[in-house]
Amino acid sequence: MTPPPDSRYLVLISVHGLIRGNNLELGRDADTGGQTLYVVELARALAARDDVERVDLFTRLVDDPHLSPDYAQPVEEIGNGARIVRIEAGPAEYLPKEQLWDYLDTFADNMLGFLRDQETGPSLIHSHYADAGYVGTRVSNQLGVPLVHTGHSLGRVKRRRLLASGVKQEVIDARYNMDRRIDAEEETLGAASLVVTSTTQEIQEQYGLYDHYQPNRMSVIPPGTDLTRFHPPDGAEQKAPIKKELARFLREPKKPIILALSRPDERKNIATLVDAFGESEELQNTANLVIVAGNRDDIRDLDSGAQQVLTDILILIDLHDLYGKVAYPKHHSADEVPILYQIAAASRGVFINPALTEPFGLTLIEAAASGLPIVATEDGGPIDIISHCKNGILIDPLDKQDITKALLKVVSDASRWRSMAKNGLSGVKAHYSWEAHAESYVKAIAPLLDKVEPPPRAPVARRPMLYHDRAIFTDLDQNLLGDPDALADFLRMIRENHSCTSFGIATGRRLDSALQVMRRYGIPRPDVLITALGTEIYYAPQLTADAAWARHIDHLWYPRRVRDVLADLPGIERQPKSEQSRYKVSFYIDPERAPCLDEIASILHQADLNVHLNLSFGQFLDVVPARASKGLALRYVADQFSIPIEHCLTAGGSGADEDMMRGNTLAVVVANRHHEELSQLTDTESIYFAEKPFAAGILEAIEHYRFFDACQVPRRPEDEAAQDSDG
């Protein structure tokens, strides 16, 4: 699955939202906005280039009777060698992004399975938003290919804004899974070779809040817009059904239109716009206000945030008696969005984005491409857009007088309006076409593609294990030790099923320590021995070390810097040399004196060290490379020997085992290992918490999963050849 040197197979990931090739349901909910349109258009624009062979956009498969069957189609061709690939993860129905975190490991495993089946592997992975960053980090670590990331919206920024609005910290974390989101963002920023942003302000004021802030790895590449869809009015827009729909609201439909188009989200600040319009008699006499805020049948069926926004708008319309002056249609399709801009432009109107914060502002580019001047918030993307295009006015979104003054300047001055409209058209073509975006993108990623190395493959000496159908991996110590009778029963079962089952041990111990314990308790050498927290892999029968794995995890690993950074922290003491290894730096930690794990991670991030931290039993802290863990090592081994990951039973009990147990593996926590470090897994459906301790708990899980019921010994090629010759 190695990409040919001259090919570019680019993989994009956008986990959440409703994504399809045509008629995107933009504004349906908070997750189906500009990001979904951006990734579809990016996939098409990149695939249209001669120097890109193929682009796959991975998203979540949704099979929901309340939604279009389009979202349940596993693969959708969207033209020019671009596809949408939908991956199963979690329940079949549609879920908001905040509820997807527990299913992202499954998404990563299923996505990796899809990629393994392709003739060539990806040259690069580009994740969009925090949840895709979580997935992309894992998949890129396993494949050894560069990761590019676009945040779109950042958790630390959102948390600050919500706190400022009066929402309690505990409410924010519970409602938005904010801690997990920010942790994923930090990890992604540490792993990414390139971060693509829309504006310079985004780099300085938003990513600057993160420990892994590395501006030298960030590149401003503004999104493009489809100039075949968004263009100035040509007269056809006057006959469109949406024009009649707007006219039924308006007493004087020929007035200039002030157009606001966004999701019904409090951050979009539409209520302030309505209030400003309602308080200005001059503005009402000069123009009509058109608010297109998503789609709805019944406001009461929307989520609470959208309900509140739309209710506030209706109350303000009534308060200021704006009937006949404001249009607020209930429905519009994606195909009608360009027509709305054209209708406003034909009326010599203006587009306004009064959002409290705007990371980029794709609607502003669409409006400019339609010959429509803009008024926009003086935050984020609009600053760059108006600087490039000279087609609008920046406003303080909380100052109603400022909003009113800017709108009147545009719609009341015909000469200014014509100049802004003309500037917008030329500025978009020069700076914001998809062709320009794709050109800048390919230039930015070219240095990364030169460094792609083929993923490590298994030496011929280990090929016999290919013919095993499944595998059991367990931690050593208290999982296997503690009950000699149960251990004997477990080992007997392993021997009886060894023709189809590989047996592996994954331990935090070094090799010599693990072998010593195994000899003491009569545990035979397993087929695979993963030691030192996933940093070393050895194979039976001669304990052959996997040198390819060592080279793979050495990527960006600086153990001396890790030791230096943590050396002077209180409550942290290096373990003896016997507990250290080439790819593991180990400490004792006193939780009463030492910083918490999040603070330690932050300190390492600020030193530009991208690593995995493992805290076991509250007193042992181990630091290993970002590409190393028990879970990543297990998946590497399973892939080398073509054992489906869903045929791997894993038994763990400390925090170091967590990623071995998430995702598509079958997992068990034995009774004596129901440790608080794994308490967050109790609601995970794929993990079985045994009632029995030690090896008896693993036997209990084997019975629970009916693990050996379908055990098969796959036919070897030489066996099939022999049968053919006999025939």
Automatic annotation (TrEMBL):
- Glycosyltransferase subfamily 4-like N-terminal domain span: 33-229
Q: Does the keyword Transferase apply?
A: yes
Pfam families linked to this entry: Glyco_transf_4 (PF13439), Glycos_transf_1 (PF00534), S6PP (PF05116)
GO MF, one annotated term? sucrose-phosphate synthase activity
Q: Where is the Glycosyl transferase family domain?
A: 249-424
User: In its keyword annotation, does this UniProt entry include Hydrolase?
Assistant: yes
Q: Which UniProt keywords apply?
A: Glycosyltransferase, Hydrolase, Transferase
- Record-given protein name: sucrose-phosphate synthase
